[in-house]
């Protein structure tokens, strides 16, 4: 009996020794905060230094291959040997393997516990982890368990729903997930962990696309939520007239987009604010070039855009007079004409005379106008020549043999024109490259072609021309070197070549000239030193106090600014006493074109105009005169006309045949009558 007990006791002791001699390690793999633990101690026939510890694994974060899984393995060395760990190998049932080397070795003495970090992006549902060391290793056998997703952060919400919101509204974002951080973007990109952190209310000042997403460490980020906000915005106010040229004293009305809007405005070019002029429905009067800026405001609404209008005072810019009609180019590019219209030379589509200005049709961007006996031409903004009226001699340059054009028509075969000149039934133009082209009546050789046949299309005559003027039957031009040439009829010595022989080709007359004008049978030109020279017919005193006929240029006046010639009278503009710019005229006065009571006597001495000063420019017709006068009060140019009014060419609405005094032309048309 005792022997049996002793034997059993011995057997138990052996078994205990075997158990005690076994190295036992306990491991726990923890994903998140959940884990379970099962301890096993077995050798499985492997070398004594190779021990296996099996743990049940709760796979709590295998969501996607790009999502990093972070956990740790807690192990305890039950001995009898100390162990050094330098890495681990992790694999899953999908064939993915990761070899991880620790930054530093971990020594586990017998009886000690340590935590080894486990990081993986593997996605399988079975995981095997092997701890590596130089002499032995521990193995976690794989345990099958359905994967569980990491907790997901709840999507942020806003206190304001998408849609229209008041100006300066505040957006507050929140999430029901405690500890989560909300990040957002306002540039329509997706929020990331680098985006702005929501800390304070977001103030809406403009239309806004707000995207938000919440993040929490160890959790899956929330879905992205998008809010689209449209700020309530005041509509832009408008003015009753678009930007552009407007007549002096034009009234502008401001119109709000909504009756509840308040409009503020400025007229000095500065941006308006709520401290600027408050519009009270009264018209704004345009009395000078004006930059009008508007802004509209309303409570809880964003201010409107600043709307800008540029108003330039329209008004007379350049005058041209023909035999019995007159025209003026306005600053805005429109043309007014008045007087005789029997050959449609007024360009309004009718043949009715008009004693007040009327708009020329079909041209709104004119930069210069010139008129002759019964036709008119202008240059449009793109350098195109437009002509209208009589065409019996081809003076419109339209190629085809049409008798007239009721409205302006583009002249083919010529472009890039910078100056247009019309006289009698002929037309000339200087191009940008200084080439001179002429067409129309040529019976006296006044076109300079070398012959006397009429020319129906623009034809090049000379090069390098700076100035030109054409009369009823002769023409003169000045080249870029200030050399003067004349050609055409020379019965009265109007060519100035010392003879009375006509010429169909240009004849050199003299040098140092800068401006030339041609009358019916006389010519005048200004030299570089501002001396005025004249020659030709003088039977009415149109040359001044010299012989009845002058065959060569003869000095008449000094300090001349500009001048022009009519059929048989002449006018100049001079500066008087260093202050006023005056106009003086001489020659024939049978229609009071000198502002004197009409008579048939020649006037050799110039008569200064008594009723107007500060003359800008003057233009002479057959027997009438018009001048542009600077109004010193508002820098506005005014038109004054006098002389023959038999066809209404003075333009003041009078039926009188002669207007003896300078009379203001006030009824300029800036737009079609409605």
Give the helix/strand layout.
Elements: H1 2-21, E1 25-31, E2 51-52, E3 69-77, E4 83-92, E5 97-108, E6 113-120, E7 127-132, E8 137-140, E9 157-158, E10 163-165, E11 170-171, E12 173-174, E13 181-185, E14 196-197, E15 202-203, E16 208-215, E17 225-231, E18 238-239, E19 244-246, E20 250-252, E21 254-255, E22 262-266, E23 277-278, E24 284-286, E25 290-297, E26 307-313, E27 316-321, E28 325-330, E29 335-339, E30 354-359, E31 368-371, E32 375-379, E33 385-390, E34 404-410, E35 417-423, E36 426-431, E37 436-440, E38 455-462, E39 465-470, E40 474-479, E41 484-488, E42 503-510, E43 513-518, E44 522-527, E45 532-537, E46 549-557, E47 560-565, E48 569-576, E49 580-587, E50 603-608, E51 615-620, E52 624-631, E53 636-644, E54 658-665
Parallel strand pairs: 2-8, 10-17, 19-26
Antiparallel strand pairs: 1-3, 3-6, 4-5, 4-7, 7-8, 9-12, 11-15, 13-14, 13-16, 16-17, 18-21, 20-24, 22-23, 22-25, 25-26, 27-28, 28-29, 29-30, 31-32, 32-33, 33-34, 35-36, 36-37, 37-38, 39-40, 40-41, 41-42, 43-44, 44-45, 45-46, 47-48, 48-49, 49-50, 51-52, 52-53, 53-54
Distance between the termini: 141 Å
Tally of distinct domains: 5
Net shape: elongated
Q: What is the helix fraction of residues, given as a range?
A: under 10%
* CATH-assigned homologous superfamily of the largest domain: Regulator of chromosome condensation 1/beta-lactamase-inhibitor protein II
Question: What is the radius of gyration computed over CA atoms, rounded to a whole number of angstroms?
Answer: 51 Å
**Strand adjacency order, main sheet:** 2-8-7-4-5
- Main beta-sheet strand count, sense and barrel state: 5 strands, mixed
């Amino acid at each position: 009996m005792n022997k049996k007990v002793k034997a059993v006791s011995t057997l138990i002791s052996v078994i205990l020794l075997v158990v005690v001699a076994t190295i036992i390690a306990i491991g726990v793999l923890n994903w998140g905060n959940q884990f379970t633990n099962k301890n096993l101690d077995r050798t499985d026939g492997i070398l004594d230094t190779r021990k296996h510890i099996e743990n049940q694994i709760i796979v709590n974060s295998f969501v996607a291959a790009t999502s990093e899984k972070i956990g740790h393995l807690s192990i305890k060395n039950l001995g009898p040997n100390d162990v050094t760990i330098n890495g681990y190998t992790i694999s899953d049932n999908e064939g993915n393997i990761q070899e991880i080397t620790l930054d530093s070795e971990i020594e586990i003495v017998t009886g000690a516990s340590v935590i080894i970090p486990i990081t993986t992006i593997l996605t399988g549902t079975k995981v095997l982890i092997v701890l590596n060391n130089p002499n032995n290793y521990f193995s976690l056998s794989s345990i099958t368990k359905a994967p569980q997703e990491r907790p997901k952060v709840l999507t942020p919400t806003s206190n304001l729903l998408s849609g229209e919101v008041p100006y300066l509204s505040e957006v507050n974002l929140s999430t029901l997930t405690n500890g989560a951080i909300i990040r957002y973007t306002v540039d329509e990109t997706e929020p990331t962990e680098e985006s702005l952190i929501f800390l304070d209310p977001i103030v809406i000042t403009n239309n806004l696309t707000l995207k938000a997403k919440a993040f929490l460490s160890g959790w899956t980020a929330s879905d992205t939520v998008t809010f689209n906000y449209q700020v309530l915005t005041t509509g832009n106010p408008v003015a009753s007239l678009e930007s552009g040229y407007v007549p002096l004293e034009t009234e502008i009305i401001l119109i709000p987009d909504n009756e509840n809007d308040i409009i503020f405005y400025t007229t000095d070019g500065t941006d308006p604010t709520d401290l600027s002029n408050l519009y009270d429905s009264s018209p704004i009067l345009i009395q000078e070039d004006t930059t009008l800026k508007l802004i509209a405001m309303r409570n809880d609404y964003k201010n409107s855009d600043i709307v800008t209008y540029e108003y330039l005072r329209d008004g007379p810019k350049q005058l041209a007079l023909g035999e019995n009609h007159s025209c003026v180019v306005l600053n805005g590019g429109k043309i007014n004409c008045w007087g005789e219209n029997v050959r449609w030379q007024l360009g309004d589509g009718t043949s009715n005379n008009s004693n007040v200005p009327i708009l020329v049709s079909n041209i709104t961007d004119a930069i210069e106008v010139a008129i002759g006996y019964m036709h008119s031409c202008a240059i449009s903004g793109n350098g195109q020549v437009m002509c209208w009226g009589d065409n019996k001699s081809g003076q419109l340059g339209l190629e085809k043999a049409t008798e007239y054009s009721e409205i302006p028509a583009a002249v083919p075969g010529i472009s890039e024109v910078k100056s247009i000149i019309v006289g009698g039934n002929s037309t000339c133009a200087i191009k940008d490259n200084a080439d001179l082209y002429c067409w129309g009546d040529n019976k006296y050789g006044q076109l300079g072609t070398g012959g006397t046949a009429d020319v129906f299309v623009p034809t090049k005559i000379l090069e390098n021309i700076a100035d030109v003027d054409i009369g009823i039957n002769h023409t003169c031009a000045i080249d870029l070197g200030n050399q003067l040439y004349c050609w055409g009829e020379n019965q009265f010595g109007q060519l100035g070549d010392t003879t009375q022989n006509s010429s169909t080709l240009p004849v050199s007359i003299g040098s140092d000239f800068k401006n030339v004008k041609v009358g019916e049978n006389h010519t005048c030109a200004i030299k570089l030193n501002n001396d005025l020279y004249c020659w030709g017919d003088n039977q009415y005193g149109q040359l001044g106090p010299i012989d009845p006929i002058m065959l060569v240029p003869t000095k008449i006046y000094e300090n001349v600014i500009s001048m022009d010639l009519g059929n048989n009278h002449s006018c100049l503009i001079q500066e008087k006493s260093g202050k006023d710019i005056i106009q003086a005229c001489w020659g024939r006065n049978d229609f009071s074109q000198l502002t004197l009571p009409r008579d048939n006597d020649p006037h050799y001495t110039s008569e200064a105009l008594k009723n107007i000063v500060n003359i800008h420019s003057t233009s002479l017709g057959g027997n009438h005169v018009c001048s542009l006068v600077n109004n010193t009060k508002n820098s506005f140019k005014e038109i004054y006309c006098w002389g023959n009014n038999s066809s209404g060419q003075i333009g003041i609405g009078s039926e009188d045949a002669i207007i003896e005094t300078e009379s203001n032309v006030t009824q300029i048309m800036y737009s079609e009558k409605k």
